[in-house]
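In response to reviewer comment 3 from the previous cycle, which asked for concrete evidence that the modeling workflow produces usable outputs, we include below a single protein chain processed end to end. The sequence was submitted unchanged, and the resulting structure tokens are shown without manual editing.
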Amino acid sequence: MSKESHNAHIKAWRKRNPDKVRAYSRAWCLRNPEKRREIDRKYYQENSQKRIDRIKRYRELNPDRDRITRKVYCERHPDRVRNTNKAWRVRNPEKRRAYTKAYALMHPDLPEKQRLRRWRNRTECIQEYGGRCACCGESELLFLTIDHVNGGGTKHRETIGSNIYSWLRRNNYPKEGYQVLCMNCNWGRSQNGGTCPHMQKTEEGKAS
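The workflow returned the following structure tokens.
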């Protein structure tokens, strides 16, 4: 049997037995994950434009399914999505500015929506951490903020690159290392070596 005849025979068999082919391919991929990744990587490199065109066609033909798939992926891999988006913004500053400007023109109510979303995140976050100052007991929401118990708030904000309230929300409000303080107590801690003057006076009174 010639090579052409052999290939034609295999192709015909595959068409007659799609379930067997699918099961065998799945089993092979499970047994050889590294080889599968290497094959995929090589294919993507050699056919990058073809792959991009195929994905675009799929998204155009299946907008609802594509929307659901993206949403599920973002929920499963928030850090990966955030890093990818951040890298794209760094590589494409002009496109980002143009997109932001066009989006703002199409949505004139955007600033108000953003303000309400930030306020909602801030309110929810402060309530999760007790809703009142851990030092003096102040409960007026406008006076309250999130404090890093062990200091290092500035470095942390530089690392996460986003609003502290949104970061805490995305990470399910970690209980250790964060507390609610009023602005006075927070500023007092920063200017007094990490101890609020209220607490310092209380400790001095107990000692005397």
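The first strand starts at residue 144 and ends at 148. We consider this sufficient to address the reviewer's concern, and the full set will be provided in the supplementary archive.
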